[in-house]
Q: What sequence folds into this?
């Protein structure tokens, strides 16, 4: 029996809390505002940004999309991020990917004020996370932990294996698991005998971007699997990195795609934005 660790209700609970806090802040004279900087004409990016803007507005957070177009120069993107960082009416800033080919994500994200860095993109935020100092973790990485916690998965002393080592997901998930006293192994594209490593996991997180990478041979009996992958299918759907049919019956639990990590990620971006607004109002 493989339990499905849904994110839908967890996300709804976070949005309810955010809605109350956004109303309180607005009444107190600090209406929370999120800004998303876009420099691409990628279709799936556009629909992701629309979904963030919709979710923000539904919870009472204003959302500004700064669309610089796919030909934006890196300096233009940096200037937009710096201007938003200086704008006291803006509390959260997201730099959307993909970026134009000559723009470097980490380099540009360094222009986001860490106090407004609601998706943990500034390398300073990642460094503070690694040093156990307060910062906003990347929302997707935190969403994995929030989902595991919501479903009561024990982490202290657990053997955790993270597949993927990107700055946006793999590394911060590993840091968050480490901060919760899990024993963490990170795998990546050069890892040899991947299945031998992943089979040692009590908790397995897949954050690669390759549909069907994790199959029954990669999982031990009873393992809890967090699937971060979001891979578009030709029919307009979405699948994760885990072959759900293959691991079902062997894994103890699995986060679904869609409906797992994704909705919790969006809800956390909103929670981070009201937290940033609260801090800016001096009532943290
Ligand atoms: P990335 O391309 O930056 O990193 C992929 C990582 O996977 C790399 O570290 C690479 O070494 C590793 N890798 C590649 N092939 C591998 C293999 N065969 N075996 C083991 N490791 C391998 O990707 P990313 O930005 O970290 O995103 C990963 C996935 O998570 C993507 O599907 C992305 O769409 C998804 N994602 C989802 C959300 C969400 O909100 N749900 C947010 C961000 C990313």
A:
């Amino acid at each position: 029996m493989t339990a499905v660790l849904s994110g839908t209700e967890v996300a709804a609970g976070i949005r309810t809390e955010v809605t109350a806090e956004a109303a309180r802040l607005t009444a107190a004279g600090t209406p929370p505002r999120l800004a998303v900087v876009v420099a691409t004409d990628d279709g799936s990016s556009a629909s992701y940004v629309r979904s963030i803007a919709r979710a923000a507005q539904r919870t009472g957070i204003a959302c500004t999309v700064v669309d610089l177009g796919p030909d934006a120069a890196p300096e233009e993107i940096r200037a937009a991020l710096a201007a938003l960082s200086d704008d006291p009416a803006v509390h959260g800033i997201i730099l959307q990917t993909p970026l134009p080919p000559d723009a470097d994500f980490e380099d540009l994200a360094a222009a986001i004020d860490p106090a407004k860095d609601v998706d943990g993109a500034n390398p300073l935020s990642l460094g503070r996370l690694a040093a156990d100092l307060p910062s906003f973790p990347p929302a997707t990485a935190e969403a994995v932990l929030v989902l595991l916690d919501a479903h009561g998965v024990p982490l202290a002393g657990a053997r955790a294996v993270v597949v993927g080592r990107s700055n946006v997901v793999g590394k911060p998930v590993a840091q968050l698991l480490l901060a919760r006293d899990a024993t963490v192994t990170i795998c990546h594209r050069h890892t040899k005998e991947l299945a031998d490593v992943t089979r040692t996991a009590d908790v397995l997180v897949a954050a690669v971007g390759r549909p069907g990478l994790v199959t029954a041979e990669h999982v031990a009996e009873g393992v809890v699997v967090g699937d971060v992958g979001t891979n578009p299918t030709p029919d307009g759907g979405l699948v994760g990195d885990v072959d759900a049919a293959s691991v079902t019956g062997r894994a103890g639990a699995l986060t679904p795609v869609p409906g797992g990590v994704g909705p919790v990620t969006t809800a956390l971006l909103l929670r981070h934005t009201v937290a940033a607004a609260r801090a800016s109002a001096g009532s943290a």
Summary: The chain has a mean pLDDT of 97. The CA atoms of residues 19 and 58 lie 8 Å apart.
